[in-house]
Amino acid sequence: MASTYEKLNRLKLRLMTSPATVEELANYMDCNTRTIFRFLKDLSKENSSLRKIKNPGQPRRFFIEQTKNNVNAPLIRSLRKLHKELTDHAEIRYTKVINKAIDALEGKTPETDCAPEAISLDPDFIIDHGPFSEYDISEARIERYLTAIKKGQCMKVHYMQGSSGEIQKLEIRPLKLILRMGTLYLAYSTEKTKNVKPKLLVVKRIRQESLMQEFFKPQEIDVQNFYKYCYGKWVGDSEKTVILKLLLLVKEPWLESQFRESHFNPPAKIKKQKNHSTIELNLYDSPDLRKWIIGLLPDIEIIEPVLFKEEIKKMIQTSLKALKS
After folding, report:
1. Percent of the chain with pLDDT over 90
2. What are the b/e assignments for 137-168, b being 16+ CB within 10 Å?
3. Which CATH number fits domain 4-64: 1.10.10.10, 3.40.50.1240, 3.40.710.10, 3.90.230.10?
4. C-beta separation of 289 from 283 below 8 A
């Protein structure tokens, strides 16, 4: 449950977007009007530039007035003047550099400068998502999504389907940004219920997004439960999804150590035997799981289920045929 501090911040973000009545705010915050009046009183004490609009015959509308004061304004003006002078003298190569400097001073982050490379928070702390990472999104875009999530503001997105390449137009309620196994996802819903099972969009495939002047009540998602039984990126999307109870015999100590340090949900159950260990896993049957199991051979032996073991054999035989061709 959100704290009073979090609720006030959510209300602030809403009031910074557009004026709203007490009733609209109560619906947005999923609370009663008395609570909204109390929150507005708290905001007034904070000197948060809370304002109200009163028109005859209409309910009062509240908003927070935002004052933009860029401390870099004098420097930006000087750079713009220099840019004009260089343009007049056809010094185009320098004007591009100045444009980048102006963008940086204004807080803009060009997406073209965000390459899919190792990201460093500190020179001695390296985060590298690998060659197939889909996390190469600019901070400016991430900030837009996070702002919409915090405000509870609906979005319109144009999303490219991964398999067909077709563009799908969606109206969504953004809920969370989730970075999982090198891919950044936008979890969203289209439902109005409080507790929802989110759907996922790969952020890199969102070709266009815009904010709507429509807001929604707080919606809660249980991310831990959402990824339960998942080995990798693939998430079970129906009640027909098969949950495998895998029993593996582990032959190598290094592999046993990996399982002990793993973060499966539910956790792996490890039983130490005399010369080996057995691992019990409960996971969705998915293509990425099967390929992972094949990659562990011959350092493991599949004990159960027998049918799954036979299907893995067929996959290996098919792979061998591909190597012979």
Report:
1. 48
2. beeebbebbeebbebbbbbebebbeeeeeeee
3. 1.10.10.10
4. yes
Per-residue pLDDT reduced to its tens digit, 259-289: 999 999 999 999 988 888 999 999 999 999 9
| Token reading at 97 | 């550099």
Residue 217 pLDDT > 70: yes
| Cα–Cα nearest to 304, from 247, 249, 255, 226 | 247
The architecture in CATH of the region 139-220 reads Roll (2.30)
25-to-62, 126, 222 alpha-carbon distances in Å? 9, 43, 25
If you count them, how many residues does the chain have? 325
Burial label, 71 (beta-carbon count in 10 A; 0-12, 13-18, 19+): exposed
**Is the C-alpha dihedral spanning 109, 154, 220, 197 positive or negative?**
negative
Highest-pLDDT range among 107-111, 201-205, 240-244: 201-205
Q: Model pTM?
A: 0.72
* 3-class SS shares of the chain: helix, strand, coil, % to 5: 40, 25, 35
Q: Where are the domains of the chain?
A: 4-64, 139-220, 243-324
Task: Output 58-64 pairs: Cβ under 8 A, ≥24 positions apart.
Answer: 59/21, 59/22, 59/23, 60/21, 60/22, 61/19, 61/20, 61/21, 62/15, 62/19, 62/20, 62/21, 62/22, 62/25, 63/15, 63/16, 63/18, 63/19, 63/20, 64/12, 64/15, 64/16
Beta strand ranges found along 32-165 (DSSP E): 50-53, 61-64, 119-122, 125-127, 153-160
- Sign, Cα dihedral of 169, 236, 127, 145: positive
> How far is the first Cα of the chain from the last one, in angstroms, to the nearest whole number?
59
Query: What is residue 158's DSSP assignment?
Result: E
pLDDT tens, position by position, 84-111: 787 776 666 677 788 778 877 765 545 4
